UniProtKB/TrEMBL annotation:
Catalytic activity: all-trans-beta-carotene + O2 = 2 all-trans-retinal
Organism: Halorubrum hochstenium ATCC 700873
Entries under NCBIfam families matching the protein: blh_monoox (TIGR03753)
Cofactor(s) in the UniProt record: Fe(2+)
Ranges of biased composition (kind: Basic and acidic residues): 10-19
Record flagged with keyword Acyltransferase: no
UniProt cross-references to Pfam families, sorted A to Z: BCD
Residues bound to Fe cation: 76, 133, 282, 286
GO molecular function, one term: iron ion binding
Compartments, as annotated in UniProt: Cell membrane
UniProt record similarity statement: Belongs to the Brp/Blh beta-carotene diooxygenase family.
InterPro entries documented for this protein: Blh_diox
Protein name: Probable beta-carotene 15,15'-dioxygenase
Keyword Metal-binding listed: yes
Amino acid sequence: MTEAAATESTESRPADAGRRGSTAESAEERVDRWFARRPALALAALLPIGAVTPLFPVEVGVATFALGTLVVGMAHGAVDHLVPLRAAPGVSLRRSIAVVSVVYAVLGGAVVAAFFLAPVAAFVGFVALTWLHWGQGDVATLAIASVDHLPTSAERWLALVVRGGLPMGVPLLAHPEEYRLVAEWTVGLFLVDAGAAATAVDPLFTPAVRAAVGAGMAAATLASVGLGYRRVRGGGDGSNDGGARRDPAGWRRDVGELAVLWAWFLLAAPVFAIGVYFALWHALRHVGRLVLVDPEAASAASAGDAVGALARFGRDAAPLTLGGFLVVGAVGASVPAGVAAPGDLLAVSLVAIAAMTLPHVVVVAWLDRRQGVWRPGVGA
């Protein structure tokens, strides 16, 4: 695409989000409120429930994860085939579907093959990829909301490390037993010897690994919060704005969300915590982003019609959401160990989600580039 064409795609650029709708609430502001702010408040309200979930059987978490995946988790990536069409002028529907289909087939197949060949390495890779992607999603949400205390790519990458690491790293620190159980279930799908999974995942759960993850997450969080505070106090490095003071409201929002996420993943049982987070936080934020790149859904959002915007998204997502569940079924039918218990079902779902996550990350990374999410100064 030419630079001129990219400039014309104003509806898909987070950098413009805070500069529209000066007299009335813009589509970006409504979407941020519907799909990010209110769900964050809902997660905060669920903290007392999360705090008691370690007392429940892990099957409660498995059921919660399944429900969250069924309701919204699987759907949030089911419009990827339309993203190039809507975010880049000049891309035809046929080309959009063809390119994304190839990306999904090649990369998704590679992930499933990796689990068959090296299940422990594939599990670690899935955790790392999810860490990247969930951080990626939150940084994009902050950019769409014109949160301006992260004006450089380095600060946004640090925010990604923190935001993605909270759901992936903090449960390892707070609830290693259940985290390990999920790893054993997933790796065990691909091992003939049922007892080999426990031995295979041993190196991932040593005290040294947990301590390193905990210390790294604490240090990254403090660094991100501290750098943001320096920005809003007018102590920027001058590379973009001469050290100008920035709006502290975005920094306060960032800190508030980080506090909720730290508390949620420290207190709640991992499977339950991830199931709720996936549906209520990550998936909804991405749905909101896709609403903004669809002209019809964005128009409904501008008019305050949340139901209309969601109906449009739901219509587009329905066919490939069903396809996602067919992938889960295909993985379940092919694993050597078979599927005989709720834990096996969760593990199969995770492998199928991993197969869909890698191509989804590629599509989202392309959208990030189109929208300038990682370009220094965007959102300033």
